[in-house]
Amino acid sequence: MPYLRWLLFGGWMPGSVPAELILTAVRVFTGLSLALAHGLDKVRNPETIIGMAETMGAPLPTAAGWLSALAEFVGGILLALGLLTRPAALLICGNMVVAGVGWHVIHRGDPYGTMEPAFLFLALAALYLVLGSGRLGVDRFLRR
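^ that's the sequence the OP posted. Answer follows.
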């Protein structure tokens, strides 16, 4: 009966095997999705993101464009590995605030469906900024 109560109404069970497996799966999926579906193209074709930075009025658009591309690609890979998770998540959060608010909301006035990925990546990166990589990330082994 206590298990049924926890299943229906219970909260977070930090450190439990199911919780760690789910957090790891979400971390890996989020990191690889960000790196491969978004960041890789920006690293391969930086002129697009540099042009966006110029359009937004960034003071150093080339540097800003490359920082954005690397935040998504390298930050995504680091997040997936659980390596330097909190710094990577912080970098991703900053990039997604600029992408979501700066580009989609202020500059373009996009409908929510267009800006949704930036805010989803922001929310997931914020989660790992607070929680860290968990027991199944590389960070755990570096802490020892």
